Input
Amino acid sequence: MNLETHLESQLPEMKALLEELVNTDSNTHDKEGVDKVGTLLKNKFEELGMYVHTHREKKQGNNLEVKAERSSEPKILIVAHMDTVFPKGTAKERPFEIIDDFAYGPGVSDEKSSHVAVLYALKALKENESEAYKNVHVIFNSDEEIGSPTSKPLIKKAAADKHYSLVVESGRPGDAVVSERKGVGRFDIEVEGKGAHAGVEPELGRSAINELAHKVIKLQNLNDYESGLSVNVGLFNGGTSSNTIPPDADAKVDVRVKDKQQAKEVTKEISDIADEDTVEGTTTHLEGGMAQPPMEKTEETEKLLDVIRDAGKELGMSIKDVGTGGASDAAYTADEGIPTVDGMGPLGEYSHSLTEEYVDLTTFAKRTALLARTIQLLTPVNK
Output
């Protein structure tokens, strides 16, 4: 039985597990919920006869490592995250449902359908007597939605001896996977001025809002969409009352860059803007920096894409690759120099949407088969 046919026969089980996962709240800050998802996955992989190690965390959910055996040294790293952006209680308010060929619910594409795909891809390989499942090291992490503070060291350590990294954010329409992601910067700018009565003695004040407003315009002028650079002042706060010269103001800035050189240049430009005062008597403090490196497309990435395309051809798929401005854990493996392709999960769209996030169930078996066959093609025959 070929992989896709085998997985088509598993679809009822796959949908049932997807429903159970989606109906388990797992907001990043809901440790209990994330750990419930982790325990469910741990049990499923152990039923498959695989080794699972739990990395316990005090505040965030626990992180999981899965391998065929404790002592095995696989060369393919798969990264999936268990956390979602949705508050605790969302699953009860908006539980899993299937309408026509689409599944809906909190985290259904970002990325609980991918949990199922990883499990059943390895299960299909093992049940079809392919040793390729032994060549896989899976990290299920708990905090991707906030930049993976606890799991990033684990991911980087796991990537150190790997030949390939497959990250299972949702697949894109048109049989597409993700070959490039922008780097992400987060900056906080605080301005201290001097308060004064706006009617009685305004000349004694030093407006922090006025100073920050000048800086915001300069920051927004850094945007260069054609070159892949975006700078967005998303939050701006300041002042105490309408009749007071504002003594303080602050802004939060999101930056997206295409490559490391662009990251270096825009970081300096932001620092220069912070250092340049327009309103005499104000002081500016800048914090933050590049939080996530860009996932750049390399020659080695292209070679990995060729293997994925070959796997897709066998399944009647014409695999394309796209870039995106969103961030993921793929950035960390790519930054380690490991050929990385993201978007290897089932086709889904509208991640983080309150109502529209979905997975196309007609792609569930085929995209899982794509993952399984890619693992086979990347695995030497003596594995």
